[in-house]
């Protein structure tokens, strides 16, 4: 719902702030006063092209209470969840544009999307949803009681589409299938014959580094053995001297320590000798490890960045190979299932078609009643339903048609009317669909063109009824419609020798009575017009 609209430097408006209410908001003013400029500013805010003759930076700001659908959209677009949105758009004389939503920069396309979720303008300059044939089937379905049937059809249709996709993949040429089989078998065999272990790459690299240094390791171990042998000779000489020392001085005994030292040096000498023997037999092992490392590098270039990735690729290749080897069996199964799905879809689509035909006749009758109330009884509304291919919503092609005069053939709704006449037709149809539409605000411009008498009263009555379900903004020149409003805004021009600007005033009490009297007679002070204005305002 539109709560507030702030307009600066737009057309003839210098600066104005307007508050809007729930229910029916009417804008009135003398012919040429610029009533539609307010709607132009709202359209500009929500994505319409900017005017080419801007002299100053134009800015329009709107505050909206959001519907549930608009709240979901806001979150999907990355904004925090909120009950309202403040949209701003400004354009400089050079054409530079700035858009904001809840204080953050946004694109013009995002403002347009939000506007489409919240409001719709019905005028000779604006297209609307009900004129789009692509939405007619959806609207008819919303009125119907076959939603469970439609959901069942949609579920089957999604399954059918997935089955058809798999059939297309399996139905490739025999030559292509054989080529893939041959290549997958080669890949699987190459990976399996490598007998890969997940951790072996790190172990191989460590062993290669060790064996690559075998010569240096051998040289250093031999030098160590030489020093150990010299140390053993020294320990032996030391033991003889210590034995003589003990004989001369029985109070000291170093023999055990010397013996332990000799034992440890002997064990170290044996260990180094064994290590040297191993080094002499490892050149062949180095060749084997380097060959294994080269194999791993080859496999990594083909199948993955490391051994686990290669193993994963191999598992996937084995599954694809199994799928292709079992393709004929799977193909037969899918073909059989597709036939079953098609038969079920055709059955459900037929039942949907029958239900829609009944609903279409009910809608035609209801719209005819609505048109008669709006003094358009000579028009004939029809729902044209044609068979088509199975699709996401069934097998029906549906469009709303209208015959504007007796004896003339019906034509598509979008091609038969314009201006106020189109707005009244839309009012008739919208009154039926309003409770199913997520829109919170409906705007009518020139809905009363050429109306008077009972037809004008009927339009006022229908606008009032519609305003109980949705916020309605209406530009009008008829007193009976203005008097039905829950809020009344007067638009007037103020001119001097240099400039002309618009003045917008929310009317209440005597001021509203005077405006309605002016609309009735052209003279706000006429006593008879004032009496009739009071009577109109007292109507429930």
Question: Please, could you describe this protein's structure?
Answer:
There is one protein chain. The protein is α/β, with parallel strands linked by helices and 540 residues long. It is 57% helix and 18% strand. The protein is built from 17 helices and 15 strands. The protein has helices spanning 36-45, 68-76, 108-118, 133-143, 147-170, 174-193, 200-212, 214-248, 255-280, 283-303, 307-325, 327-373, 419-433, 453-467, 479-483, 509-521, 527-538, and strands at residues 2-10, 13-19, 24-28, 58-65, 84-91, 97-101, 104-105, 119-122, 380-391, 394-403, 411-412, 441-445, 471-475, 487-495, 500-507. It has a 6-stranded antiparallel sheet, covered by helices on one side. A 6-stranded mixed sheet has the order 8-12-13-3-14-15. Strand 10 and strand 11 form a beta hairpin. Helix 5 runs antiparallel to helix 12 and helix 7 packs antiparallel against helix 10. It starts with a strand and ends with a helix. The relative contact order is 0.13.
Structure annotation, total helices: 17
The fraction of residues assigned to DSSP E strands is 15-25%
The shape, in one word, is elongated
State the helical fraction.
55-70%
Structural class: alpha/beta
Please, what is the average pLDDT? 84
Largest sheet: 6 strands, antiparallel
Strand sequence of the main sheet, in spatial order? 2-1-4-5-6-7
Radius of gyration: 45 Å
Low-pLDDT parts are none
Kindly report how far apart the N and C termini lie: 24 Å
Total number of β-strand segments? Answer: 15
């Amino acid at each position: 719902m539109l709560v507030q609209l702030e307009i600066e430097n737009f057309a003839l408006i210098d600066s104005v702030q307007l508050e809007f209410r729930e229910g029916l908001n009417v804008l009135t003013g003398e012919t040429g006063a610029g009533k539609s400029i307010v709607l132009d500013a709202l359209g500009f805010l929500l994505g319409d092209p900017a005017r080419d003759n801007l002299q100053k930076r134009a800015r329009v700001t709107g505050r909206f209470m959001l519907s549930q659908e608009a709240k979901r959209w806001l979150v999907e677009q990355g904004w925090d969840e909120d009950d309202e949105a403040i949209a701003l758009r400004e354009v400089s004389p050079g054409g530079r544009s700035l858009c904001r939503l809840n204080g953050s920069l946004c694109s013009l396309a995002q403002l347009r999307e939000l506007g489409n979720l919240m409001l719709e303008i019905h005028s000779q300059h604006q297209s609307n949803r009900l004129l789009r044939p692509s939405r007619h089937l959806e609207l008819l379905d919303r009125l119907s009681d076959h939603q469970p049937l439609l959901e069942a059809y949609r579920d089957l249709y999604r399954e059918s589409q997935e089955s058809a996709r798999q059939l297309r993949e399996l139905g490739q040429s025999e030559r292509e299938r054989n080529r893939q089989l041959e290549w997958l078998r080669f890949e699987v065999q190459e990976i399996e014959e490598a007998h890969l272990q997940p951790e072996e790459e790190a172990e191989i690299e460590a062993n290669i580094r060790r064996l690559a240094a075998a010569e240096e390791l051998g040289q250093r171990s031999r030098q160590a053995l030489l020093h150990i042998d010299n140390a053993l000779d020294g320990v032996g000489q030391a033991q003889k001297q210590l034995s003589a020392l003990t004989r001369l001085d029985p109070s000291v005994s170093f023999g055990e320590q010397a013996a332990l030292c000799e034992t440890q040096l002997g064990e170290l000498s044996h260990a180094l000798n064994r290590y040297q023997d191993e080094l002499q037999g490892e050149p062949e092992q180095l060749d084997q490890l380097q060959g294994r490392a080269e194999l791993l590098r080859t496999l990594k270039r083909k199948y993955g960045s490391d051994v686990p990735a290669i193993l994963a690729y191999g598992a996937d290749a084995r599954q694809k190979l199994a799928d292709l080897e079992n393709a004929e069996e799977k193909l037969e199964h899918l073909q059989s299932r597709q036939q079953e799905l098609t038969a079920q879809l055709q059955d459900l689509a037929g039942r949907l078609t029958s239900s829609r035909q009944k609903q279409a006749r009910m809608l035609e009758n209801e719209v005819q009643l609505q048109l008669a109330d709006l003094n358009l009884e000579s028009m004939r509304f029809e729902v044209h339903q044609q068979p088509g291919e199975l699709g996401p919503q069934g097998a029906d092609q549906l469009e709303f048609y209208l015959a504007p005069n007796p004896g003339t053939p019906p034509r598509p709704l979008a091609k038969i009317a314009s201006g106020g006449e189109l707005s009244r037709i839309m009012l008739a149809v919208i009154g039926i669909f309003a409770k199913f539409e997520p829109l919170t605000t409906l705007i009518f411009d020139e809905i009363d063109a050429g109306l008077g008498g009972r037809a004008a009263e009927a339009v006022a009555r229908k606008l009032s009824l519609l305003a109980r379900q949705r916020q309605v903004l209406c530009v009008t020149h008829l007193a009976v419609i203005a008097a039905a409003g829950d809020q009344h805004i007067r638009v007037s021009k103020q001119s001097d020798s240099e400039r002309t600007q618009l003045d917008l005033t929310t009317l209440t009490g005597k001021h509203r009575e005077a405006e309605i009297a002016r609309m009735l007679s052209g003279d706000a002070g006429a006593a008879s017009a004032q009496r009739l204005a009071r009577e109109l305002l007292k109507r429930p």
